[in-house]
Amino acid sequence: MTLTILLDLDDTLLSNQVDTFLPAYLDLFSKHVSHLIEPDLFIKALMFGTQKMVENQRPDVTLRQVFETEFFSMVDVDRNTFEKGAVDFYKNVFPVLRSLTKPIPDAVAFVNEALELGNSLAITTNPLFPLTAILQRLEWAGLPADKYKFDLIASYETFHFSKPNPAYFAETLGSLGWPTGPIVVVGDDYERDIVAGHQMGLSTFYINGCDSLSPGDWSAADHVGDISDLHTWVEKRSDEHMPPEYESITSLLGTLRSTPAVMDSLFGSLTPDRRVERPVPDEWCPTEIVCHLRDVEREVNLPRVKSVMEESNPFLSAEDTDQWAGERQYICQDGWQAFQDFTATRMSLLDRLSQVTEGEWYRPARHSIFGRTHLKEMVSIIAGHDRLHIQQMHRDIFSKK
User: Residue 329: how many CB atoms within 10 A of its CB?
Assistant: First the structure.
C-alpha cells in the first residue's frame, strides 16, 4: 500500500537556521524595495501580514490574499509597482541566501528511495512564502521540483491555513484527494509539525538530529531521530500501525474547516465548461457535487447540530439527499455561487461548534437509521461525508489530466 509522506523543508530536507536566515532575508528584501517603502515600515508590515497568515481561520481566502490585505493597508505604495519589485527580488536577490543553507545528503537519499518504492511525497513546508521561494529552497536542498515528482508543494498562493493549525494538514490531505493509505508527518519543529500532525490524527516522525536524546516530552512523536533513520523506521512500520485516525474533536473541526478551502482550490481551478462535465454518464459533475454539499449543509447538517445543541435528546429523521441532484437540476445551477453558499453555511456551522463545551460534544440524539447517537458522532459523519466528496472531485479532476 502506498505511504503518503508529508515532508517539512527547512531543517528537515535543507539545513537552514531560521535565526540566521530570517534576519538576512528581511535585510535584503527591505533594502531592495527601500525606494518604495521605508525599510523599518516594510519589515513591520511584512511581519504583521505574516502573523495574520498564521492566525487565519477563514477557508475562503488564500494566505496570499490575507497577507496582501494586511500588508497594503500599512504601506502607501502602488501594488503593481511593489509586486514588480518583489518579483525582481525573488529572481535576482533571494538566491544570494543560498550561501546560508546546506543540503542534507541523507535527505536526498531518503527522497530517492521513497519515490523508487512508489510512495507519495508532499512538501509541507509552512506556506508563508511564495512558490518561487520554496522551489528555490528545494533546489538548494538538491531536490529540484522539475526532477523529483512531489505530489504537492504547499505555498501561500494556494493554501488557506498554515502551521500549527491542524486544518493545514487537513487541507494538505484534501488537496491530495484524502489518501486512504498510511500517512506520516516528518518535520523538525515539534509544535508546528509534530503536535499539529498528531492532533490531526496522523503518525509523526520528529527530526531532532543530535538533540534526539534531549530531555522533554515528545509524546506527540511516534519516533524521534535523524533523516537517516527515517527510511529504516518506515520499512519497519506495518500499514496497520500507521493509519490516520480522524476521530478527535481537533481533527474533526480541522477537516470541516479545510473542506471549503480545498474546494476553493479544486473547483476554482476549473473552467465553467469543465465544472459541468461528468466523468461518466452516471456520476456527478463537479457542480453537482458542490450543490449537493451546499444543500446537505444548510438543510441537514446545520439544522441537526442546532437541534442537538438546543433540544433534549431530539429525534433526527433520515434524508435521501442523493435524489436532489436530479430533482433540483444541480447541473443547471451556478456552481460558483453554490460553492460560496456552502462556504457561508459551513462557517455558520463552525461558529456553532466553536461554542460547544467539552461535555456537550456528547449531547444525545436519536437517529432514524443510526439509533442512539451524539453530537460528536454526528460531526464525525459530516467530516466523513466531506472526505468522500473531496475524493470524488479530486479523482474526477485528475483523471482528466
Answer: 11
Q: Which of 14, 17, 5, 15 is nearest to 230 (CA)?
A: 5
Range of the domain at 181: 4-15+101-241
DSSP string of 40-66, one letter each residue: HHHHHHHHHHHHHHHH---TTS-HHHH
C-alpha cell, 385: 461525508
* 64 and 122 belong to one structural domain: no
User: In what order do the strands lie in the sheet containing 371-374?
Assistant: 315-316, 364-367, 371-374
For 62-94, how does the pLDDT look when each residue is reduced to its tens digit (9 = 90+)?
A: 999 999 999 999 999 999 999 999 999 999 999
Q: What is the pLDDT of residues 201-240, one digit of tens each?
A: 999 999 975 454 455 677 888 888 888 888 888 777 655 5
Contact predicate 8/95, CB 8 Å: no
- Is residue 94 domain-shared with residue 107, that is, in the same domain? no
Shared domain check, 147 and 26: no
Residue 300 CA to residue 379 CA, distance in Å, equals 12
* CA–CA separation, 396 and 338 (whole Å): 19
CATH of the domain at 305: 1.20.120.450
CA dihedral (148, 84, 65, 143) in degrees, to 10, reads: 10
pLDDT of residue 385: 97
The verdict on 256 and 297 lying in the same domain is yes
**Domain shared by 207 and 219, yes or no:** yes
Average pLDDT, stretch 27-32? 98
- Number of structural domains the chain divides into: 3
Lowest mean pLDDT across 95-104, 268-277, 367-376:
367-376
